[in-house]
Amino acid sequence: MRVLANVIDVLGSRDPRRRLRLVQWLIASLVYLGAAALLVTGVGQGWMNTSALNLWLGFVGAVLAIGYVALRSGWTERFRDPSITVWQLSMGVLAVNWGYLICGPMRTSALFPIMVVFAFGAFTLRWRQIAFLTVLAVSSLVAAVVVRTLYPHWVPAQGDVAPIRVDINNILMLIVVLPALAVIAARLSSLRQKLRDQREALARALSEVERLAISDELTGIANRRSMQAMLERSVALSTRQVMPFSIAILDIDHFKAVNDTLGHAAGDEVLKAFARLSGSQLRDTDALGRWGGEEFLLVMPGGTDGVCRVLERIRESVRAGCLDGRSITFSAGVARHRAEETPDALLARADVALYQAKRTGRDRTVVAD
Predict the structure, then answer these.
(1) Which of 32, 126, 173, 294 allows an S-S link to 252, with CB 3.0 to 4.6 Å?
(2) Domain boundaries in the chain?
(3) 294 assigned to active site
(4) 103-150 tens-digit pLDDT
(5) Which of 314, 296, 283 is nearest to 351 (CA)?
């Protein structure tokens, strides 16, 4: 088995990309081989001339040998298309139409391999290259028809063939061609599935990026950037007297002591529980985000009375729910947006009120001004 593996490596290369190109060359070679076998049987049946067959076999053998050496040596890797796809497929088109010229009554089946040629082209060719192959296929076929019509003495004579033999030959040619088409179709299906998987993975990644861009990684609620944007939109609406609103800055009391005595992991759990419990007390029109550290920003439509009522509900919810066996409280500064007031000015007033709440004993809410 080791010897066989070494032989395969020598013939097929260990480089995965080069090996793939050689596999494609092998598929084309098997189609050529199957077609050649049918032509050889035609000599005994009387519809294939030996000299014409030898010329065709010499052309095909030269094409395959040149292609293998160029691909296996890596010489083609200097080109934009290291598979030399256009050259290989052009030679395939010429071989097919040459076969049409010399196959006499079996010439229709000689055209079947053209399907393999264009199926291979679907992988890498651009539309200009496909157009070139199409023109080459049609023009060379027309040339073969012209030669058969105007210069019949150039084409070795073939005898008459029974219709059943034509049908059998067509079936045999399909048997030669269809496996190659099946392999190509399977690869195309695999590529389509890979593209679908990549699109789905990209969509998930983009969704995650968008989520991270607007969400706090620890608590899962809106982050500072998202709350800043919401605050600016709310200010614009309030300035046009569309929707007045108020804000509150919440700061967890003695949060540093939690980190110092219980560790940062416990502090993180307090922040997550605080965000979850606070969010459960809000309406759909309210927005809560982490403003930084242990500070949270609440944006609510309406006046400060409504904000204060919500803050009291939050206070009761988080007092015993954030940390087992230890009461968690917070201080809050509330401010209502004034006409023509900028977001920074509104935040500054709320921050002053928060400072006053902390200075006068914490665990309370102070309304600005």
Answers:
(1) 294
(2) 2-206, 224-367
(3) yes
(4) 888 888 889 999 988 888 887 888 899 999 999 999 999 999 999 888
(5) 296
